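Hi team, as promised in this morning's meeting, here are the two structures we talked about. I've kept the exact order from the run log so nobody has to guess. The first one is mostly here for context; it's the second one we should focus on when we meet again. Sequence first, then the predicted structure tokens.
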Amino acid sequence: MNAHTEADAADRDLIVRIAFGSMAAQTLRAAVRMRIVELIGDARRTAADVAADAGAEPQPMTRLLRALTGLGLLREHTPGTFSVTRAGAFLDSTRPGSLTSFVRMFTEPVLTRAWEHLDGSVRTGDIAFDTVFGTDFFSHLAQHPELSVEFNAAMSQAAGEAAAALPRAYDFGRFTTVADVGGGDGTLLAGVLTAYPALSGVLYDTAEGLAQAPRTLAGHGLTDRCSVVAGDFFRSVPKGADAYLVKSILHDWTDEQAVTILGHCREVLPPGGRVLIVEPVLPEVVDPGPEPGLTDSALTYLSDLNMLVNVGGRERTRPDFEDVCRRAGLRVTSVTPLPDAEPFSLIEAVA
């Protein structure tokens, strides 16, 4: 095979691998729904035993376990005998740092159906989710409590790395009270308050978003240091904080809506206060990285498309953030990447 055809084969292989991506995702979904990793545990188990515990047939179970092995989540030691790899252990719902809710949510048909209409959203700019379901994503969550609980759990799991990285990357000691706007179950704010014992906190979200917050705060011993306030950040945000933390919120919304949220933070920001935005910051020109495929760079742009089809928001570049901040009466003073929580950065803004 000459060099030209070798290059062609590699390029064709890239396309095939990407095309199989949705199948890999559904394999993860099946593993989580059937509790495969929990059933295997820390031992080596046969596919027949796992199948018996899962209420499944041995031969199809063997095929599922081998697919998971091919994905690097299990290891096959002898024919039909498997154990869990370090990566696979994150599919154990009982493990600290588990990603099971994240997998369930991001492979949930409610999220994936709108992707079938990506081309339509690109042509029109319309939100495919609204067309498919007849309502917007967050209203749909409010109408389906079980799905809302799953979404909250997925967001909590997704916030874990940032909750650990943010207090190490930024000095919160200058503040007295931090308000987490759209803070969900409080995972991120709990990380900050735990690292800075003198701080008080305000956790602010909708009633649905806050449903699991009391349990999170109690688990961290923060019930007395953090108040929980239900409300709508499109109408107002609570007064009394000198730092307003906004993580993974602005990318859900249009520029105009982002300006509204930031503007409400600006209205209550005291002298010397800060608005701290935690989101991916896209480069102005795509850096695909050294290898093609589903790289960290690619995942961020796929997230951008997910915002397009499901909620109507977008990921942003630094100039984009500077623009929405300026329109809200804020000025960006720094952008700090969070290497322990890629692809997130911390954007600091002042009045």
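And here is the second protein, the one for discussion:
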Amino acid sequence: MKMSILFGIAQMNLGIVLSYFNARYFGNSLDIKYQFVPQMIFLNSLFGYLSLLIVTKWCTGSQADLYHVMIYMFLSPFEDLGENQLFWGQNVFQVTLLFLAIIAVPWMLFPKPFILKRLHNERFGGQTYQTLGTSDTYNDEESDSLSQPHHEEFNFSEVFVHQMIHAIEFVLGAVSNTASYLRLWALSLAHSELSTVFYEKVLLLAWGYDNLIIRLVGLVVFAFATAFVLLMMETLSAFLHALRLHWVEFQGKFYSGDGYKFKPFSFAALNDDED
């Protein structure tokens, strides 16, 4: 279970890093400052800290309840950890991380829409204009319409709502997507219990008889169940769950589907454009 959580957190961090390189490649500094940085702070202040606790527990052999530590980090951040304390200064460290995570949420939400509005006002004076048409094929009515500036007000509410949805989706998705990897732990428990049932209720039960035929039948049934149920069906089930997690949780962290539709080069298309 803990390995699946570590794997999920590592993949989400990798997805955010890939989004950073994507924003850097296209020269979008706003996405770097007001999405990449607060997202990394939020994710690692909470779930990166959980990874640190898991590794620390492994190294020290502590019996601390990590669920209790993470839950009461929010409910009672100043409460004494007692037997759940893994290292010195853990209380102060948790409060600092919680403060950073809280700060990261308005950092993702508010600055970018206001900065976009300010840049729009500085560039266009609050409105945009169409370029004048120079072709002789335009009639007088079209020329008059093109010569007039078309006022397109900056839709601040739309930009703000979009940014709010993006921020809320990331915050909730960081929690739900990390918790989604717990299904791999549930599958491992199911496999363990199923193998125990096959071993105790089939093989050992058949081996308790003195009849050779019953023993052989029990051995054949156990071998069939092991090969086809545990090794094939359960392995395929775990693979499909992991594939779904990687595709949805991991890919959703950096793939946004923006841009323009790909149009392959074609001589036929050139002839159509000329016509």
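Starting points for discussion:
The chain has ten helices and no strands.
Confidence is low (pLDDT under 50) at residues 128-151.
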